[in-house]
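Hi Prof. W.,

I finally got the AraC-type DNA-binding protein prediction working! I wasn't sure whether to trim anything, so I left the full sequence exactly as given:
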Amino acid sequence: MKKWSSAWAGLALSYGSIVIVIVLLICSFFYIYFSRSYNEELRNKNQLILENTARTIERTVLKRVQQMYVDLSLNKSANIRLFADQEDRNELNQVVDLQELLKAKVAANTDIVQGIHLYYPARNIMLSSLYGLRYKADQSEGSVYYADWLQEMRTSKHNSLWTPVRHIPKDIFSSQTSENTNGLFTYAHSYPFRSTGETSDVIIAIDVKEEAVNTIIENMMPSQYQHTVIVNAAGNAVSRLQEQSSGQSDMYAASLKKALKLGHAKGSFDEKIGDSPYVVSYQTLPSTQWMIYSATPSSYYYEQSIMIQKLILGICLIALLIGLILSAVLVRANYSPIKRLVGRIKDLSGTTSHQVTNEFRLIDNAFLHLKEQVNHLEETVHANSAAVRHKAVLNLLQGNPEHRPWKEERAALGIARQYKEYCCMLMNTGAAIAESGSSKQPETIAKLMHGLECLSLQDSRLIAEELPDKRFAIILCTDVASEALLDKFAELLLAETRQQLQPDIQLSTGCWVKDLRDIHQSFNEAQALMKYAYLLPELHILKDHSLLQREHSLDEIPQTLLAKFRDKLQSRQLDEAVGTIEQVVEQMREGQFPADYCHFILSNMVFIYSDVAKNVRYKHPLQFGHPDLYHEYTNLHDILAYRNWLTASITTFIEETENRNSDRAVSTIELAKQYIEANLSDDLSLEAVGSKVFLSPKYLSKLFKEEMGVTYTDYVTSRRMEQAKLLIENNNMTIDRVASSVGYGTTAYFIKRFKEMYGCTPGNYVRNLSSAAISEAGS
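And this is what came out:
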């Protein structure tokens, strides 16, 4: 019999305990979760039915009624404002046409609408599709049946309302009481649309049949129909789907109050109503802000899940039995290799059988000893090889290989033999590694370097090493130099790197060299080509060595473009400023400018933008204080990202500045008026005056229209004409001098504008003044 401390006993107890615990947990979980999940599914289905019902009522009744109001408001075939004016009207034909329009609209929507009424508050007249034309509408016979919406709308500060359901006899003029009544609720809306009830010219009221809503709910919620009610925001019943006694109404009062207090548009909760548990669901109708309230007994859900619970219990019992059988089989199967391993360890260590009390402890001690030996060996190897290799590659790329036998140098790089051709490729991955997160960088870099070197073919060898600036240098060693081979390796390198980092990696290739110790020449060319990756981000492989001719180019971007960029920013001309950015970027990408010079120009544009923003004390809406534009610029990966960033930033800057300037609109207009008054003879175009008050021409024109009530051009013309009139009256000046004194370059145009303003030419005006003076002297 085996000891309880042996591995066999431990495995048996472990497997058996795990199986029992897991099965019991699964049994409990499934019993609780699936039962509740099934109940929850039923409740969600019930809630979904309620939502669909509310959506159907909203679409087929409420929205149609609101659309009828819009159709009547926009209808041109009849005059809705017929009685809106105070004077009497005897246009009987118009009254008939208007009533026929209302009747036609009711006939087209008879499934939901009972009648349509037009009420004119100023004259207390109502024209109805049902009741005809009624003077003194609020005092006439039967007015009690529509007094609720009529009185409330006449004093309402809002433009519309929905009334609760009221029961109206089919014949409101009959003196006979009748049980044959219609349940109606009314939608009333002011006309014109933006007027309130007390300021409206006409009130359009549409009587909606309660039956239309009840039918939808009864068809879509047959099981909940008896326990459903529609209430307004105050909790008062708007429409009861079934007539209920006062005791039944009070029974739902507490849960109804709770649903309203939650303040949600929809929801569901458990509530005890009377002595029975219920599931209360509610859904808000957006058009009216009424709430459909429905209470369903909880037993409705639980009774349907009993079979599920029994099935789960049966499955768990079967799983427990099968698990115990499999545990016994696994114990026997797993103990056999342990027994053989323990025997091998005893033979190697010389341990006798009576010294072993637990097989696992013996195996653990043996592996700990082995692990210590392996770790010590690995630390020694890795501590030296990685550093030697990294230093050797850097020395080669810098052109100063160490003074030691070249055979040892190749061994440190992992090169088994001498190759005939060498080429250096440079891969820019700094931004991609930075985005991957600092905690994962060592793992990502090691995995990437391993993947790159695994791309070596039988007759070629790749050496990959990370540089201090987060770029990768890849040295290709081969016996036959060809552009096809270089292109093939470049594509493989890009594909491997994109899997590990990101898809927009770029790679540049240097020239071929015969000796590995001259690889720094190829590396220098690859570095020079990589400069143009910023300007040409669409090129994944930069191998066109004609780009190096740009390094010696003396071409320059016209300084007028930078000056234009500054001017357009200062005058808030967004389209022109963006156009300048596009022009500069296009010239850099298509021209022959050196890469460093392009970066100088781009940074200058950022500094210009920064200076303009500082001059107006601009603060970015999502940042505290002045934005660090240069820092944002240095984080951009290519010139297209620079263009998009600068365009978006300038757009935000101009929009925010324009919004901020709106708070100073009045003072700015005063400054503009003062400038206009003092410079009537000068250029007073929108561009000229806008630059003086630091506003864009478009915004200055908008301010004049909003604040002064006249256009900018009309205001300037009126001021010039008034000044011209004063000069004509008080000075002995010719018409030509007067025209130039008030800013008109041509006398003919001045005479034309003067005549438009005062009804006569300047010459006639002078003669009229002289005639008046002579008349006064003669008298």
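The longest strand covers residues 181-191. Does that look reasonable to you?

Thanks,
D.
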